[in-house]
Amino acid sequence: MSDTVTIVPASCQSAAQTAYYRALIRSHKSSCDSDLLFIFNNLHEKAHRDLAEQFTKELSDLNYKWLYYGEEYNLTKIWNYGKRKTESEYIVFCIADTMFLGDWLTPLKLLVDTPRQWVLVRRRSWNLLPRSILLGIS
Questions:
Q1: 10 Å Cβ neighbour count for 62?
Q2: CA 116, 118, 122 angle in degrees (round to 5)?
Q3: Residue 126's pLDDT is what?
Q4: Which of 74, 119, 125, 138 has the fewest CB atoms within 10 Å distance of its CB?
Q5: Are strands 35-40 and 65-68 parallel, antiparallel or unpaired?
């Protein structure tokens, strides 16, 4: 088990979207040793549930975990739901359109381990939990 988990909230509502998620998990697997927790949401139609079920087999093949969040979409609540499901030392919160390149995780862990408590994002200060990393905000 890794000391890091990456939490990815996502919905499977089309084959194209699922293909993108496939690229996401492959880029994650090839670029770091972090565990990955994929959290499905907004699977209101049978076709969406079928796509998600097929995708869970691919997640399992990579030793990644998945959960279903049954409430209406709320990014913060989904991230918090995922946070409650892990005991990892580091937690990476990202969004479903993230691609992981190169050695992305090591510099972020070094940044988190510095004594700072504030990270500047879009001219606002966000007080992150200790050893938490937020990805995907521009």
A1: 11
A2: 140
A3: 46
A4: 138
A5: parallel
